[in-house]
Amino acid sequence: MPKNAMRLAIFAAAVFAFAPATANAQLTIEIKDYVTMPMTGLVDGKGSNDVLLARVNTLREEPGGANRFFITDLNGPVYIVDKDTRKFTTYLDFNGRDGHGGLFHKLFTEAGYGSGINAFYFDPDYRKNGKFYTVHFEDESLPGGNLPDNTRFPGLNLSGYTTTEPVTTPGPMMQFEEVLIEWTDTNPSNTTFEGTARELLRIRPSNRLHPLGDMTFNPSARQGDPDWRVMYIECGDGGSGEATGSIRSNPQRLDNLVGKILRIIPDLNEHTSSSTVSENGRYRIPNDNPFVAVQGARKEIWAYGLRNPHRLSWAVDADNPSNNNLIVNTVGLHTWEMVQIVHKGANYGYPLREGTEMLKTDNTTTHRPANDRIPVQVSDITNDTVLPVYPVIQYGHVPGGGDAIGSGYVYNGKAIPALRGKYLFSDITTGRIWYADYKEMLAADDGNPDTQAAMHEVKIRWNDQVYDTMWPITEKEYQARGGKDPDLPGRGTVSGNGRSDARFAIDGAGELYIYSKSDGIIRAVVGAAGK
C-alpha cells in the first residue's frame, strides 16, 4: 500500500474509533433570543478572555416565584434580570480591580476559562433565610487585601468578616486561591444587597486550571431529610492530572480536595447530630460521607478521580426522590469528553483513565489493562485497589465530536413534551448539541465500561432557519455586536479557529436556555419537533 494511502487509512480508523456513537438527527429544537448581556469584553480583545463579549456563566431563577433571574458574568457582575421587562440591574460586582469599584481587589479574570466569579447558587431555604453561595478566583500576587471592599455596596455589613486559612494541595504552591462564600441578604425582595457574608472555604491549588466551581443541592430534599441543605460542589484538578511530576496523582489522592466532588453542610446549625465541624470551623461535614473514617483522607470528599467536572445537574425522579441521580459533565484532556453518574465514594479513574481507556503518563490513551483495578491512595501511599467507574456517555476529540463538553440537563419541564426523559447537552467549542435517553444512561451505569447510552444529534431552529450547530448562530450575533474576529474568538482542536461557547441552563420550571460567552446572548428553548 502506498505511504499516503496508508496514512489516510490510519487516520480514518482513528476517527472511527473515537467518533461519538450517534444516531441520525431526529430532533430539532427551536430557540429564541431571550436577553443580550451587557458587554464586559472587547470587540477587538487580544487576551484569551477579553475577546468574549460577555462571560455569562450561570443563570439561576430566584426560588419562590419572584419572577427574577440572577445571572453572573465571570468578569465580575452579578445581575438581576426581571423576567417581565428583561431589565438588568447590577446586584453585586466582584471586580474590584483597577478602579472597577467592585468587592474583591484580587479577583483574577485574565486567563483560564473558569477565572473570575465562577459559581452562584441559591440555598434551598432562600425564601426564608436569604442565603446564597458564590465561588470566585483570586490572585494573591495582586495588590490589596482579601477582605471585600463594600464602598460601592454599602449594604454589605463586614463586621465579623474574616478569611480562612487556605487548604493547600500537594506540590508547588501557586499564587491563586479559590474562595467559597455564603451570603445572607436580609431583604431579598429588592434589587440591592443588604446583609452579611461569611467565607466558608479557601483552596490553594497547584495551578490555575480547572478551579473550584459548580455547586448544587438535592432539589427533592425537604426539611428533616438527610440531604436537606447539603451542598455538593465540584473542584477541578487544577491541571495537576496532566502534569509529569509528583502532582499528577492529586486527583487520586484522598488527602487533598482537587479532582473531587465534595459534600458539605454550609450552615453550622444544620444537621448538628449527624455531622462534624470542619477543620476551619466554617461548615459541617456529614457523618455518612464515604471517607470520614479513613485516616488522612479529607472528610469532605464524596467522589474522586476527576479532571474538570465543571457542570453538575440532578436527574429528578418525582415519584421516588430516593432515585434522584447527580450527573457530572467532565472535560477531558486530549481524547474523551464524558458524562458520569455520581456515586458515593466512587473513583472515576483520572489520571489513570480517561473515558473508557487507560491514560498513559505521556497523556495518550490505550486499551484498558486486563486487570482493571487501580490503587487507592490516601497520600502517596497505596493501601488497596478499586475498580474505576466509567462514563455513561462519551465522545471523542474528532470531527463529529468536539473539544470540551458543556452543561447538560434531563428535561423535566412541561412546555415541550417532546423533550421529556431526554438528557440534552452541548459541546462548548463546536456548538454541537446532542441528547441521550435518560433510561439508556441508567442502563449504561451497570459497571460495564463498554455499555454506553447512544447520542442523538440535535438541530437548532433560530429565526426561521435550521442549523446543525450553534456555531453559525453565535458567529452572526458576535459580528452583529461589533466583534472583530473574522470567525469567532478562541480556538479548539476540533472547532478550529473560534469557539461557539454554547452551554445549557435551566429555570425553576425546568425549561431550558442556551447561553454563549462569545456573543453574550442567552436564548430560550421554546419548542422541539421530532423524536
How many distinct beta strands? 36
Report the radius of gyration as a whole number of Å: 22 Å
Instruction: Give the number of helices.
Output: 4
Percentage of residues in DSSP E strands? 35-45%
Share of helical residues: under 10%
Structural class: mainly beta
**Broad CATH class:** Mainly Beta
CATH architectural type: 6 Propeller
Most strands sheet: 9 strands, mixed
The CATH superfamily is known as TolB, C-terminal domain
Named CATH topology: Neuraminidase
Ends apart, CA distance between termini? 44 Å
Which whole number gives the mean pLDDT? 94
* Anisotropy-based shape: globular
Residue ranges: pLDDT <50 for 5 or more in a row? 1-16
Question: What is the total domain count?
Answer: 1
Written overview of the protein:
By secondary structure, the chain is mainly beta. The protein has one domain (25-530): Neuraminidase. Helices cover 7% and strands 37% of the residues. It is built from four helices and 36 strands. It has helices at 3-18, 126-129, 438-444, 471-480; strands spanning 22-36, 56-61, 68-73, 77-82, 88-93, 117-122, 131-139, 156-157, 167-168, 176-185, 195-204, 212-217, 231-235, 260-264, 275-277, 284-286, 301-304, 308-315, 325-331, 336-341, 353-354, 357-359, 365-366, 374-377, 382-386, 393-396, 405-410, 422-427, 433-437, 455-462, 465-467, 491-492, 496-497, 502-506, 512-516, 521-530. Strands 1, 27, 28, 29, 30, 31, 34, 35 and 36 form a nine-stranded mixed beta sheet that branches. The longest helix is centred in the first third of the chain and has 16 residues, at 3-18. It is globular, with a radius of gyration of 22 Å. The model is unreliable at 1-16 (pLDDT under 50).
